[in-house]
Design a protein that fits this description.
By secondary structure, this protein is α/β, with parallel strands linked by helices. It is built from 24 helices and 14 strands. It has a seven-stranded mixed β-sheet, sandwiched between helices. The chain has a five-stranded parallel β-sheet with strand order 1-3-2-4-5, with helices on both faces. The longest helix has 21 residues.
């Protein structure tokens, strides 16, 4: 882009454009050519100096929510500088721009709203969705993250306030995988909320009515997906934080219409499967030796189970044999066949033909699991009795407390290590600090979907994927597990350092793209050098000359 482009804004309009604004980094030539001389201080400074300034401002903020608000404000003013800062401090800032702080930010979204970021499509917009898409200022969209706000992390129905999740996810696509932010669009489908507190809040900015469940809901979703696919035929659509009522059926309905996936199911499944493979590198046991108990039987549990089942098939097990490795516990106890008539459709394939069990402790005592995975959204349910019971039968118990945010984790890292005398292999959905026990330091891994979805998305974009398949997540999970060095496994860490996520995303993207070509689902020619093709696609957070 240069000053000969008649569409290039000038003056204050340019300074108010976060994707073009450089703040005090505009050169003297740019200031003259673009009508901004005198509108900013006269000294031109480099982006490195700007980084030092804004990082200092960020560091002075006392609370995580204040830090989140500051970063979102920076993104609204100067997007390049925001990503320059974020990519250099991703390990530190990931818990701010995403879980756990994004959960609190979503709860308070209506009260901290500053400037529009993303597209809001409400029930009142039926029949006009394509018009709303045309209002978005960037018209080459390749990735959309969309939510209806019904199941935001483990916090439940937040309605319109859930828009913070797509915004956060897409910032990770950029920071972790180098996706050009102009290619991304966060969307919230505002279909009301069943959160009575929000409906009664006079400052809530969404539709203040009960959540739509019927034909009007389906019509809005269908109009949205159809409008996106007509306007941007190869645009990747990521469903995010939909409730169980809709998540399974919407994925089934749209996954074969274009590049569509559900991160809560497929992304969570892949990252948990990768973590399990890493844990098995520590225990030395095989995947077929595992007995896996889930606390929670929703999207995440089914997604993880299906991901592991794909791995068990690779080991030669039949589908029926693989499913015998799983025990799912929901709010009513063990999922068994005597409950079949009342079970939701997604739970039925996992119903056990055995006696009922009312509590998790009873299930753990009966099954003696090698792995215990929490995806319930309910904190503290991995009690000392449960974990000690598990540890009594297993030398190296695998304990994944995956519910987000941190306040919803089924147990803490310290509890898992303490109650197993340091024998647990622990991972969580949100970060925990290292734990020192009996003079030894343990570094818990974080099973964050950010290890998976940016690489999958990048691989899909580079190859022009027409569909997103479970096998693409499978190869991504195996690639992720292979990136963990032995030195980390020795301290109990089963995921790579967050500082390495860009490198990891490149590796996953190459593996996913090769799977796209293997399945003949590509719309771009096969490159001679896949890694070079991916590298050429990457957007860098650096200023471009405008003159």
């Amino acid at each position: 882009m240069d000053s000969n482009n008649k569409n290039l804004p000038r003056g204050v309009e340019l300074l108010n454009n976060p994707r073009l604004n450089k703040g005090t980094a505009f050169t003297p030539a740019e200031r003259d050519a673009l009508g901004i001389r005198g509108l900013i201080p006269p000294r031109a400074i480099h982006i490195e100096e700007q980084h030092d300034l804004v990082y200092g401002h960020y560091s002075y903020k006392r609370t995580d929510l204040d830090k989140y608000i500051y970063l979102m404000g920076l993104q609204d003013r100067n997007e390049t500088l925001f990503y320059y800062l974020l990519t250099r401090h991703l390990d530190e800032m990931m818990p701010i721009v995403y879980t756990p702080t994004v959960g609190l930010a979503c709860q308070k979204y209506s009260r901290i709203f500053r400037r529009p970021r993303g597209l809001i499509v409400s029930l009142d917009d039926r029949g006009r969705v394509d018009e709303l898409l045309s209002n978005w200022p960037y018209q080459d969209i390749r990735i959309i993250v969309v939510t209806d706000g019904e199941r935001i992390l483990g916090l439940g129905d937040l309605g319109l306030n859930g828009l913070g999740i797509p915004v956060g996810k897409l910032s990770l696509y950029v920071a972790a995988a180098g996706i050009d932010p102009r290619l991304t669009l966060p969307v919230c489908l505002d279909v009301g909320t069943n959160n009575e507190e929000l409906r009664n809040d006079p400052l809530y900015l969404g539709l203040g009515r009960s959540r739509e469940r019927g034909a009007a809901y389906d019509a809005l979703v269908d109009e949205f997906v159809s409008a996106v696919q007509k306007r941007w035929p190869r645009c990747l659509i990521q469903f995010e934080d939909f409730g169980n009522t809709n998540a399974f059926r919407l994925l089934a309905q749209y996954r074969d219409t274009g590049p569509v996936f559900n991160d809560d199911m497929q992304g969570t499944g892949a990252v948990a499967f990768a973590g399990l493979l890493g844990a098995l590198r520590i225990t030395g046991l095989s995947l077929t030796d595992q007995r896996i108990v889930f606390l929670g039987a929703g999207e995440a549990a089914v997604g993880i189970s299906e991901a592991i089942i794909n791995g068990l098939r690779d080991e030669g097990l039949s589908d029926a044999e693989a499913r015998q490795r799983f025990w799912l516990v929901d709010s009513k106890g063990l999922v068994t066949r005597d409950r079949l008539d009342s079970l939701a459709e997604h739970k039925r394939p996992f119903a056990r033909d055995e006696a009922p069990a009312a509590t998790l402790l009873e299930v753990v005592e009966r099954v003696q699991p090698t792995a215990l995975l929490g995806v319930s959204g309910q904190p503290g349910l991995f009690t000392q009795a449960v974990i000690e019971m598990m540890a009594a039968h297993v030398e190296r118990p695998i304990i994944f407390a995956l519910s987000n945010p941190t306040s919803r984790a089924e147990c803490t890292a310290e509890q898992a290590y303490t109650w197993t005398d340091g024998r647990a292999i622990f991972a969580s959905g949100s970060p925990f600090d290292p734990v020192t026990l009996n003079g030894r330091e343990y570094r818990p891994g974080q099973g964050n979907n950010a290890y998976i979805f940016p690489g999958v998305g990048l691989g899909a974009l580079v190859s022009g994927a027409k569909r997103i398949t479970d096998t693409m997540f499978h190869v991504a999970a195996k690639e992720l597990a292979d990136t963990v060095p032995d030195s980390l496994l020795k301290v109990g860490t089963i995921f790579p350092p967050m500082d390495d996520i860009h490198k990891v995303s490149m590796q996953l993207a190459a593996a996913v793209a090769r799977e796209v070509y293997r399945l003949d689902l590509h719309s771009r020619p096969l490159p001679d050098d896949m890694e070079a093709e991916i590298e050429a696609f990457i957007w860098q957070a650096e200023y471009r000359s405008l003159v």
